[in-house]
Amino acid sequence: MAVNVEIGGRFPKSIALPEARPWSLRPINREAFKGEEVVLRLMGAEDQDRLLQFARNLPEDDLLFLRMDITDPAVVSDWARNVVEGRTVTILAELKGAVIGYASVHMDPVRWTRRIGEIRINLAPSYRSSGIGRQLTNEIVSAAQTLELRTLVAQMTTDQQNARAVFERLGFRIEAFLAKWVEDRKGQFHDILLMAYRFPTPEPGNRPYGGSRPSN
Which of 28, 38, 135, 168 is least surrounded by CB atoms within 10 angstroms? Predict the structure, then answer.
């Protein structure tokens, strides 16, 4: 796998499953996973079936806004190929061997966008508002800092207020409001926010684009 050495050295790592909150974790999960740890690790080509299972368990509404159809084996196969070839870095969150979320930074080899990375994050509904999504976001932004990127971008619908708050805490700022920019599977149009984070310009002798690492 063509993985940046510094990124590879950070994983796998375990994080404690946050104590369940009535509004975030369903009762069945609170009992089943009490005391368990979530494992964060890098995705490999062998994870395609796990990702497909994760995607196929997502509610239909969640699938409406995904940039790619991750329930399609061919799409996930292309994703895995990009990971192996170093065009994408994906961190998986696993619980008892099952994928419950991921965070990715996708890079485009086209010359004029080669130093721009796009972040995409998804988490199973039962684990939202638990802190796991915030941890995944921190980890993927920190990983992206080793890739000599100039800018990170994230896109979200205007009603995704929690996602916007997480990215703003990390230093992302709104760059554009795109009215009726995306069409979901049901043919409905939605407004999009484009947020961006620009790494500090490196001083002579410093590691390129090695800005301060976001806090956890």
Answer: 28
